[in-house]
Design goal:
The complex is a heterodimer of chains A (192) and B (796). Chain A is α+β, with helices and mostly antiparallel strands and 192 residues long. Chain A has one domain. Chain A has three helices and eleven strands. In chain A, strands 1, 2, 3, 4, 5, 6, 7, 8, 9, 10 and 11 form an eleven-stranded antiparallel β-sheet that branches. In chain A, a hairpin with a 2-residue loop joins β4 and β5. Among the domains of chain B are: 133 residues, no CATH class; 99 residues, Alpha-Beta Plaits (2-Layer Sandwich); 89 residues, Alpha Horseshoe (Serine Threonine Protein Phosphatase 5, Tetratricopeptide repeat); 78 residues, no CATH class; 81 residues, no CATH class. In chain B, the strands form four sheets. Chain B has a 22-stranded antiparallel β-barrel. A five-stranded antiparallel β-sheet of chain B has the order 1-2-5-4-3, with no helix packed on it. In chain B, strands 11-8-10-9-12 form a five-stranded mixed β-sheet. With 796 residues, chain B is mostly beta strands. Chain B is elongated. In chain B, α6 runs antiparallel to α7, α7 runs antiparallel to α8 and α8 runs antiparallel to α9. Classes of the chains: A alpha+beta (192), B mainly beta (796). At the A-B interface, α1, β4, β5, β7 and β9 of A face α3, β11, β26, β28 and β29 of B.
């Protein structure tokens, strides 16, 4: 029995170390530029997205909802277009222990003291193939991918603002606040 | 989308035009109502001699697909069954054109090119077919300069200071964002961000916080139809609308409609509204607004209603505001104001819940109920020649029922929660026997007008000196918005198996003060309890609660004035250092059990105070109560740290100490536990193996003067589809006796399966086994056992 207990401690300890190592699944080698081979469109992204989180404490104190924000540029034969890409994920068992959340229809970010709203559409746009859906690799599996057509100027302002909070509006018109989880500094590389 | 018609123009570079239109349900959502243009060269298109596909939408409802070929082709066209694709089949090279005539009688307009050449355009490289005009993808000309955003209206002088470039429009857009109205002075529209940036440079000094954005199609459409002068002329009028209202100021030149035509249009518009053809109605009302006359007033309001029904809230808001501007003192203005307020309120974020004002509306009765039944069987097995021992075999039924009704003044609520334990072993076989328990059975009434409430029945409180469950009354009254008094009285309940026991009674008073000390809420209370006619407890105390978005702290003290003893001092709190890190702490010093005269019965061969009074005086009984009451001290500090998005580690250090009790009244002394210290580490991981799975690893080490203990647990939940969850569990525990050399090792292994039906029901099955080994210097025994738990829960 003592051997079983010792073995169990070693097993769990190894799992702990392994799982902590698995934390950094977000690839450090995420490409900045990729080609959508089916449509011939080039997509450029930042190295890492901004991550915002929301705790629903009545259901769990260790699982959360997440929103990933990242810039994207598409290049179709020299015509460049900018997007604010949104990835929606949750580690909460929604649909079972907690009610499901609908995908957001709008995101609001405070920039220069002014709330700036960005309406969201499905990602990818029609001129990209489904292979471009997962623009950023995230530790948590995404449940939705959305984007807002945006300008370079607005992306620059978002990066300068480094918001510590964003507001997400669902189809039910309710606004939910998400607080910053990690702030990527790599938008500067994208913008430069 | 539905395919409407197609036509092929011949020539050396044939163009196939396919006209499509969104379905009505999509049109109501705005599809096909904006100006858009896209083009691209499909990969592999050369196989069909296809050089380019272009899509044009002029916001008129019908959209056009242009297919450009490098040679004459034959084709056939059809629509897919999912109504999302148009299928174009091209004949083999050399085939003649099959059909060059339009398939409908509709006139096909000449193809139009959207927008001037893009700044980013460049000629395509490589060899191109001789007779084909190459086109590059173009962006929608929706780039707009937001010159300034203010909470106040834009001043005329500000607008007049703008030198408007040729072909551009200056306008003001009002938008409610973050619950506040913003006025945005804008200059548009440009084909590209570079164009917009170039136009912005001369204006930077005047508008240093300007930014370039993209406008919605509806905003472009409305701004383009306004009366603003463009091309360098100072504008004469500001359209202050979120999406500008239909800009037809009175007095402008009319289309020359006769009175009869106006009547016909009005009737047609009203018919369209009744038929719920809101898009048609909006168009007709817009025509009526272009014609000066008294009919414009009604048309303005109805246009707003049509926009609202189409879900175009911003445009509806603009129409209602325009109405109130044009007809501020009209008898109908109140109605229009109501319409506007309902739109504005609906768009605001949820407000903090306020105490509800009296309303004339009443709700129907609302019933919520739940029932669960579980069969549980616990069996111990032994390694010697002993029969298995069934420790538990029972069917447990729980029922919970509540009803609620919100009246115009009174809110009513009732709740009953009960359970029945049906022992399948039987008392004859040393089973526990059947038991029925009533956990809650109360009736609530709340007077929303006078702010008093009453709860009557079996209930539970742990505030204001009340020690838990009781049968009685709790009444409260709001003296002011920040003060509330409470009165509680009843019979304490020892166990939910018991009925109403009247040998003990208590009453208590409490006073709540909101934000009495800064932002901290304070309550003071007194609680008096009697048992069989003598004083059991007379306590005074206070509670303080403080909370903000960073954390919370609660402190409580309970002092018995008769016994001159502090019953409990409790302080606990949690503080969030950051979104990832939380600290917590607890200091709990209390009598164990809480000091009441009833403690004198502990260890005695009698069960009532009256029986004790035969032998002891009241003062001696009170001394026995003190002697039977130990003091417990618990200190805990903890920290919680999130690691990435999927992991969280919690660490807690706890120290407990329970004093011993002295010997008295024929009851032996009970030694104290001594200080015991535990360190618990928990690692929680979510979404490790798939979506939404949870794994929790828990390690606990600790001990006291005479023992050491180690616990290891693993508890996980794995989703299998939407309705099934697997919940494996493992627990390993080891306890070493330091003084007697004993050791006990236990391993528990279990699997629980949860299944949720689409509605109402959850089924649960659990099976587990355990093995325990006890050993000392001379002997070793091993026991094992298993359990089964099977049941369901239904909620309605």
């Amino acid at each position: 029995m003592r051997r079983i207990a010792t073995a169990a401690y070693l097993f769990v300890g190894s799992c702990l170390l392994g799982l902590l190592g698995c934390q950094s699944l977000r690839s450090a080698d995420a490409p900045l530029s990729r080609l959508d081979a089916s449509t011939g469109t080039t997509v450029v992204i930042a190295r890492e997205p901004m991550v915002f989180a929301r705790l629903d404490a009545q259901f769990s104190r260790s699982a959360r909802d997440y929103v990933y924000l990242g810039p994207a540029q598409t290049n179709r034969q020299g015509v460049r277009e900018y997007f604010l890409w949104i990835g929606v994920a949750s580690t909460l068992d929604r649909g079972y222990f907690a009610p499901e959340n609908e995908l957001p229809i709008e995101i609001e970010i405070m920039i220069q003291g002014e709330p700036m709203a960005f309406e969201l559409d499905d990602w990818p746009p029609p001129y990209l193939s489904p292979e471009s859906a997962n623009l950023y690799s995230t530790p948590v599996e995404l449940q939705g991918r959305l984007a807002s057509r945006i300008t370079y100027d607005q992306l620059r302002l978002i990066n300068e603002a480094r918001p510590d909070r964003i507001f997400v509006r669902g189809a039910d018109a309710r606004m939910r606040a998400f607080s910053v989880w990690t702030t990527s500094s790599d938008w500067a590389d994208f913008l430069n | 989308m539905r395919w409407i018609s197609d036509t092929l123009s011949g020539g050396t570079g044939p163009i196939l035009e396919v006209r499509v239109a969104p379905f009505e349900s999509c049109r109501l959502l705005g599809s096909g109502t904006g100006i858009a243009s896209e083009a691209y060269r499909p990969v592999g298109g050369q196989l069909a001699s296809l050089t380019e596909v272009e899509y044009e939408s002029l916001g008129l409802g019908d959209d056009i697909l242009f297919f450009r070929f490098e040679r004459p082709v034959g084709y056939s066209i059809s629509q897919s069954s999912d109504l999302r694709h148009v299928i174009v089949k091209i004949d083999e090279p050399g085939s003649l054109i099959r059909d060059s005539a339009p398939r409908t009688d509709a006139t096909v307009p000449a193809a139009t090119v959207a927008g001037p050449p893009n700044d980013n355009s460049r000629s395509a490289g490589g060899q191109v077919p001789q007779n084909v005009t190459l086109r590059v993808p173009q962006l929608t000309a929706d780039f707009v300069i937001n010159l300034q955003s203010t909470r106040e209206s834009v001043e005329q002088a500000t607008i007049e200071s703008i030198a408007v470039p040729d072909g551009r429009t200056v306008y003001v857009s009002e938008i409610t964002q973050g619950g506040q109205l913003w006025h945005r002075l804008r200059l548009g529209f440009f084909d590209s961000e570079a164009q917009a940036n170039a136009a912005l440079q001369p204006l930077r000094a005047l508008f240093p916080r300007a930014w370039i954005g993209r406008a919605q199609a509806s905003e472009i459409d409305t701004a383009s139809r306004t009366d603003f002068a463009t091309g360098g002329t100072v504008i004469e009028r500001i359209m202050t609308a979120a999406i500008a209202a239909t800009a037809t100021p009175r007095g402008t030149e009319s289309a020359g409609l006769t009175a009869e035509q106006i009547t016909q249009l009005t009737n047609a518009a009203e018919t369209a509204m009744l038929d719920r053809r809101y898009e048609d109605a909006a168009g007709l009302y817009a025509q009526l607004l272009a014609e000066p006359g008294p009919h414009q007033q009604r048309a303005r309001e109805n246009l707003g209603v049509a926009r609202e029904r189409l879900g175009q809230i911003d445009r509806a808001t603009a129409e209602f505001r325009a109405y109130l501007t044009e007809y501020p003192n009209d008898a109908e203005s109140a109605r229009v104001m109501q319409r506007l307020e309902s739109l504005t309120t609906a768009r605001m974020p949820p407000q903090p819940t306020l105490r509800r004002a009296m309303t004339l509306e009443e709700s129907a009765w609302d019933f919520v109920s739940g029932v669960s039944q579980y069969y549980r069987r616990d069996v111990d097995t032994f390694d010697a020649d002993r029969e298995d021992f069934v420790g538990l075999s029972a069917l447990m039924t729980d029922v919970d029922f509540s009803s609620r009704r919100n009246g115009s003044r009174f809110d009513l609520l009732s709740r009953i929660s009960a359970s029945h334990f049906h022992d399948l072993i039987g008392e004859d076989n040393r089973g526990p026997g059947d038991q029925t328990r009533v956990t809650y059975a109360y009736f609530d009434m709340l007077d929303t007008e006078r702010d008093w409430s009453l709860r009557l029945g079996r209930q539970s409180l742990h505030n204001w000196g009340v020690l838990g469950r009781f049968d009685g009354i709790h009444a409260s009254y709001g003296i002011r918005t920040d003060q509330r008094v409470h009165f509680v009285s009843g019979y304490p309940v020892d166990t939910t198996r018991d009925g109403v026991e009247t040998n003990r009674q208590f009453y208590g008073l409490a006073w709540d003060f909101d934000e009495l000390i800064g932002e901290a809420d304070v309550s003071v209370f007194l609680n008096d309890q009697r048992i069989e006619g003598i004083d059991a407890r007379r306590a005074v105390g206070a509670e303080i609660h403080y909370a903000n978005e960073r954390g919370n702290v609660t402190a409580m003290v309970d002092y018995d004035v008769d016994y001159a003893e502090i019953n409990s001092i409790l302080t606990l709190g949690a503080w969030r250092l950051s979104d990832r890190t939380t600290l917590s702490g607890l200091v709990d010093v209390r009598k164990s059990p809480i000091l009441t005269t009833r403690n004198a019965l502990i260890g005695q061969p009698v069960t009532t105070i009256d029986e004790l009074l035969i032998v002891w005086t009241e003062d001696e009984i009170r001394q026995l109560a003190v002697d039977r009451t130990a003091q417990s001290t618990t200190l805990t500090i903890g920290a919680s740290q999130s690691i990435g998005e999927r992991f969280q580690i919690n660490v807690d250090l706890t120290s407990t100490d329970i004093d011993g009790t002295v010997a008295s009244g024929g009851v032996n002394a009970i030694p104290g536990t001594g200080a015991q210290t535990y360190l618990t580490t928990t690692l929680v991981g979510t979404s490790l193996f798939g979506r939404n799975d949870v794994s929790m690893f828990n390690v606990r080490v600790g001990g006291g003067d005479d023992f050491e203990t180690r616990y290891l647990t693993w508890d996980a939940r794995f989703p299998i589809g939407r309705r099934l969850r697997l919940n494996p569990r493992l627990r390993i525990a080891v306890r070493d006796g330091l003084l007697d050399g004993t050791m006990r090792e236990t391993v528990n292994l279990g699997l629980r399966v949860l299944y949720n039906t689409r509605r109402h029901f959850r089924f649960e099955f659990e099976v587990g086994a355990d093995q325990a080994r006890r050993s000392n210097a001379t002997t070793e025994t091993t026991t094992s056992g298993y359990y089964v738990n099977l049941g369901y829960r239904a909620n309605y």
